[in-house]
Design goal:
Pfam families (chains A, B): FCD, GntR
Organism (chains A, B): Plasticicumulans lactativorans
Protein name (chains A, B): GntR family transcriptional regulator
Mean pLDDT of chain A: 86
Strand content of chain A: under 5%
Structural class of chain A: mainly alpha
CATH class of the largest domain in chain A: Mainly Alpha
CATH topology of the largest domain in chain A: Four Helix Bundle (Hemerythrin (Met), subunit A)
Oligomer: homodimer
Radius of gyration of chain A: 20 Å
InterPro entries (chains A, B): GntR_C, TF_FadR/GntR_C, Tscrpt_reg_HTH_GntR, WH-like_DNA-bd_sf, WH_DNA-bd_sf
Keywords (chains A, B): DNA-binding, Transcription, Transcription regulation
DNA sequence: ATCAATAAACTTGTAAACAATTTTATATAT
DNA sequence: ATATATAAAATTGTTTACAAGTTTATTGAT
């Protein structure tokens, strides 16, 4: 075995927006089988996007990713390819990868798609909403409310995403769940771009109201609440000013 | 420039299930810019799946793909990675790629997802259903009927897919259209596996009825027809016998 | 003849080297 | 000073060669 790769490892990586969890600390390789390196990177980048540490417009050069994740370029490209396919990064030929910046038009489509998917799933979710499940959902919503209270915006955002995912999972359709997961991760980029600094108001409260309707078996009510909720979140976005945010960033990082 | 690659080109490829369109004959590179090789392969494989020339269980070895498409292994892997991400091929570590075989459980989820997506899109589609558009849809349905008449099953299947795609496109939501495209391509694999040899009856007729409702502006009727249509297509599947088809194939190609 | 162990052939996985492109920096002329 | 052209650096794209794994074929024993 050669010295492996090319003199990497042992670097600062102090304030990197990408957090690397050492391989052996995760449960995935409990059996001893190491998880593929490209998946490690994929999950780390996805998590960073979900927590808004990686913001739209940020560059992901191969060399930097190789260092951060201690991977070969091939594995890095594999991960970037997957992220590109999920529309989380833009892969420009010969010019590298950047975190994607959904356009306003794309944004409208995504929220419309979410409305369709999440309302369509609701009847099945209500049918599966046992008291135990509802308790779990309420717990998430309460955590979310606390995060909002303390001004921890990205934590609140993450919990909101988890809430919507758990509701969707109740419907028991893996294909639909995966589709929604893709829409939700792109929603994180949208909020990072167009989300109002003060955050969308009333989200945790509406989540709690939704759980109430679900537990009561009120299908029509739950559907209406979900639809209205998504519309309100979309309406809180600001497309006028913040579109510039990306441009500014591009300018600054165009070193 | 070196002699390029490694002694490929000039082979039989007579009855290959994958049809390769020579690069320069397509419109994509009208400006002179050659289309990336991996995309050529991706599109060829997708087309072969849509026309049921590539059937579930078939192996796609890298070497064979390199020869057929005159590509390097890297481009082939890129195409396979994309196909795997779209669930059209299974990528087994160290064991290569095979055309995917959706399970019965997956099948139920996919048809359920189609029902959701296509009925949710219908109101918008009806709103966009001008007489010209309806004429186009009817033309597709009539071609389809003719194909069924002449026993050209795969042609009929392709036209059916095109019909559903065109209807969805009317809604004008690219995100949803892409999602449906993924579901429809997987439906082709499902039909190849579990579709009754005689084909699902009455499909072109129901397509025509749907266009009538759409042109009349009958949203509720169109939604109901679409939902019922998808249910009927799913019910025509046969999960008992044909699951064996894959196994048989595996046995024969296990050379 | 059937089965197990071994060896060969084949296939995928990965790294290193090289080529091509893009970006940044420098020099020169207007 | 601004702008243009040239050169250097950095980054991505691709091939080649080799390593590791899997499948198939062969050999030998029961």
């Amino acid at each position: 075995m050669s010295e492996n790769r090319s003199g990497r490892r042992g670097r600062g990586k102090a304030h990197s927006p990408i957090e690397v969890v050492e391989a052996d600390t995760l449960a995935a390789d409990a059996a001893g089988a190491a998880r593929p390196g490209d998946q490690v990177m994929y999950e780390a980048v996805l998590a960073a996007v979900m927590e808004s540490r990686l913001r739209p417009g940020m560059r992901l050069t191969e060399a930097a990713c190789c260092e951060i994740f201690d991977l070969g370029r091939l594995a890095v490209r594999k991960a970037l390819l997957r992220l590109a396919h999920e529309k989380l990064v833009d892969l420009r030929p010969n010019r590298g990868a950047v975190v994607a910046s959904p356009t306003p038009a794309e944004t409208r489509e995504i929220y419309f798609a979410r409305r369709m998917v999440e309302t369509a799933l609701m009847p099945l979710a209500v049918a599966a909403a046992t008291p135990a499940v509802c308790a779990e959902l309420r717990a998430i919503a309460h955590e979310e409310a606390a995060a909002v209270e303390q001004g921890e915006r990205s934590a609140a955002l993450m919990l909101s995403g988890r809430f919507h995912m758990r509701v969707a999972e109740l419907a028991g359709n893996g294909v639909m769940t995966e589709i929604l997961a893709g829409l939700l991760s792109r929603t994180r980029l949208i909020v990072a771009l167009y989300g109002p600094p003060e955050g969308s108001p009333g989200v945790p409260e509406r989540h709690l109201a939704l759980v109430d309707a679900m537990e009561a078996g009120d299908v029509a009510g739950a559907v209406a609440l979900m639809e209205r909720h998504i519309i309100l979140v979309e309406q809180a976005l600001r497309f006028d000013v913040p579109a510039r945010e990306t441009d500014l960033f591009d300018i600054f990082t165009r070193r």
